[in-house]
Amino acid sequence: MNDEMMRMLELYQQGFNCSQILLALGLEHRGEDNPGLIRAMTGLGGGLGFSGKTCGALTGGVCLLSLYAGRGAPEEKEHDELLLMIDELVQWFEGEIGQHYGGINCGDILGDDLAEKVVSPQCSSIVIETYNKIKEIMLDHGIELSGEKND
Question: Does residue 100 lie within any of the structural domains?
Fold first, then answer.
C-alpha cells in the first residue's frame, strides 16, 4: 500500500467523506492547509448531503481539478483546458464507475447503505480510482500535483 492510499485510509478512518479526502490530498500535495475548504466539501458527500445524488467522488474530483486549474483571484486565468479536463473525468467516471454500479449517483452505488449516512468501504476504491484518474488527466494537460505547470 503506497503513502497516498495510507493517507486516504487515515482520512476515511477520521470520518472524512470522499470529496473531503480528494481535496485534502490535493491540498497536501500543494503544501497547503485549508480547513474551510475541507469543511465546505462536507456538503458533497453521499451525493450532495447524503441525498443520494451525484457521487461525491465525482463532484469532489471536479473540485480538485478546479483547485489546480481554476481561477481563484481577479488576476488569475483558469487553465485553457480546465473544461476539457472536467469532461474527461466525467466521461471516465460514467464509463467506469457508472457502468459498474448502474449509475453515477450515490444511491446507485450505495443502495440501501445510503440510509446509514456514512461513507461505505466500497467508496474507498472509487476514491482511489478517481484520484488516480485525476492525476493522469492533470499530467496529460501539463499540471503537476505540486501545482506547477509543465510547459
Answer: yes
Tens of pLDDT, residue by residue, the chain (151 residues) = 688 889 998 998 898 999 999 999 999 999 999 999 999 999 999 999 989 999 999 999 999 999 999 999 999 999 999 999 999 999 999 999 999 999 999 999 988 777 776 667 778 889 999 999 999 999 999 998 876 554 4
Integer CA distances (angstroms), 143 to 60, 68, 69, 85, 151, in order: 18, 8, 8, 11, 9
Question: Does the residue 147 lie in any domain?
Answer: no
Q: Range of 104's domain?
A: 3-69+78-140
Contacts by 108-116 with C-beta closer than 8 Å and gap 24+?
Answer: 109/55, 110/46, 110/52, 114/46, 114/47, 114/50, 114/52
Tell me how many domains the chain contains. 1
Instruction: Give SS3 for 105.
Output: strand
